Every structure is written in C-alpha cells, then in structure tokens.
Amino acid sequence: MTTYPQSVIKLINEFEKMPGIGQKTAERLACYILKQPLEEAMQLAYAIRDVKKVIKTCTTCFNVSESDPCHICSNTERDSSVICVVEQVADLLTIEKTCTYKGLYHVLQGHISPLEGVTPEFLTIGNLLQRIKEDHVKEVILATNLNMEGDTTALYIHKQLSPLGVCVTRLARGLPTGSYLEYASTAIVADAISGRNEMRYS
Amino acid sequence: MTTYPQSVIKLINEFEKMPGIGQKTAERLACYILKQPLEEAMQLAYAIRDVKKVIKTCTTCFNVSESDPCHICSNTERDSSVICVVEQVADLLTIEKTCTYKGLYHVLQGHISPLEGVTPEFLTIGNLLQRIKEDHVKEVILATNLNMEGDTTALYIHKQLSPLGVCVTRLARGLPTGSYLEYASTAIVADAISGRNEMRYS
Description:
The structure is a homodimer. Chain A is an alpha/beta fold.
C-alpha cells in the first residue's frame, strides 16, 4: 500500500497537532501546501517564524504584544484602577471589540480544570494578586467563561481576593440579545429571572 | 480598539487562505502557535519548507513523490497495462488504501468545471492520451468523483479515448455498503437498480 511520502506525512502530523484539526483536515491542508507555488506556501512558514520571533508575552498582564509592557498596559489613557480577568488573549480581544471597556486586563492563560491537570499554579493568578496589592486596583472584573471551568476559576480567584478588600465583579448572566425565551435553556432563563433589573420611570 | 499585533494578523491571514479555514479557526490556530514553545511551533514551519523542497510531481502520472518517476510508476511489479484516472492525489491514496488495485495511476489535477474556469487544457488529459498511445495500455479506469464535475470529466476523457480503442471503465455506482434503502436518495437507488448484478448459484 502506498501512502504519502515521508515529508508529507510529517507535515500532516504537524497540522494534526493543532486544535480542531483531525486526520482528514490535516491531509487536505497538506495537499493545499503541495499545490501552492513555492513562494505562496512559504508565506505561512515565514509568518509562523516571524510571530515566534517578534511576539512577546506582557510580563504584567500576559497579553501578547510586540512590546513589553504591552500596548494596553503602557497606555496611560486607560483606567489602571480596574482589571478585567480573562482566560485567554482571544477573550481580551472579544472585549476590546465592544469598545466599552477602558481598564486594564489580566490573562490567566487558561482555566482551572483538575480533570485536565490544570491546577491554579499553572495559571497567572499569583501575578494577578501581586498586581492588585501593588497597583491600587479598585475593581476586578472576572470575565472567565460562563461554564463550569470558568465559574470554578472565578470562584477560586474571588476567594483569593477576599483578604485584599478589592471590589470583585462577574460578567452579567442572562438571555442573549436577540434570543427567544421559547428556545432558551432552563438554566439561562433561571439566570435571567434571578438577575432581573428594575425598569425605572424616566 | 485593540486587535492582534501585526505579525499575528499576518499569520491569521495565511491560515485563512487554506481550504475550510475561516476567520475564527484561523485565529484559534494562530493563538495555538503563540502558545507553543518556539521549537514546537517551528516544526510546522520546517515541515512546510521541507515538503516544498523535497516533493516533486511525477512527470508521468502527476502523483506527488520524493522521486521522479514516482514510486508507483517505477514499481515494476505493478500492472502497467491498466491506468486508473483520478482527480487528485488524495483520491489515489484512497484507492491505494483498499489494497485491491495493482495498476498505475494518472492524476488529472482537478476536474472540468467551466463555472470555475477549469477547461480540459488545465488538466493533465493531454499527457494521459500520450501515455496511452505510447505505453500499450489495455484498460483505463475513470475514477473521477461520482458528481456532476466528475461525470463530465469522465465523459470528456471517454470521448477523447474512443479513437485509441482502449477499454474504458468507470467506478461502479450503487448503494454504499452498510447503508439502508430507506434513507438512500432516489438517484442512488436508481443507479443500484440499473446496475444490478445477477446472483449466480454456486
């Protein structure tokens, strides 16, 4: 039986290591690279090399950036008394896209998940506590995901923060804008009821 | 609004060029590269470089290989009187996996699709005709896909081959093994009926 040449198998294996890429997709991606002209295909290789060469992790907030401290931490126009804690850089960018938040961030680099062997020491929680002690932080927004791991992580950080007396908030839970009550799960509707807001007369 | 640093955006764009990779997936893959240790991430870049350096296209059958002619064309134990015509290298490997075919191949590098601007001249059909004229081929198996483009391509090649008097066959159409009649489409069942085989008494 013939299979791909050795170098192609190596490429397929490398693609397969990436999240969400299975055997079939990895083969398709490798075939795409094979078909591309040399210069086109090498663009991807160069992009990987350049990212690894240029990108640093901010030693303050663990965001990725071409400078350290990152462009958010070093922006004096941002409100340094508020820190928004997120699981990963992608979450930070999602919040930035809303253009509603002007404080700083702290990237945990994951969430607590004992099943996956991720205990709090693997995250940047120690650095977060240090920052709050040193930097006159007034509010910490826990913006971890609204699932079990995110909640566990938020709960853990909340406990760690209690001796520091800082105000700790969590993202609002409720029905997503544009959704229909009919199709929402019980847990979501229950959250929306318990977190209901008074409509004031203007 | 903050977005990714420039080098990360470049990497996301490169991933996004690949088939089946959208904006979100490209971001996830780029974040994976960011998180990986330098040496790990560079493995993918090296694999791309090595593939482009080492892999050649066989000038006989257009298979990809580290040698030219490829390991199939140069294998004297294979039956050179039969050529199986496939659209792409992935299809060749799918047939190889069955371990039932011992002849040679010819990779068309696509299918006829006027809508996508792919006319017969873009494919390796000319080379196929040349091979059949020169190499005493007895049978050509048209193993293009069983969809409109594949059928069109097969039909076109069949016409081109008619003056050469070579035996031309097409992959069998019918119900896939393990399937239920109840869920099969009308076209599939119609194929299965018109192509029915006699069950002989042994």
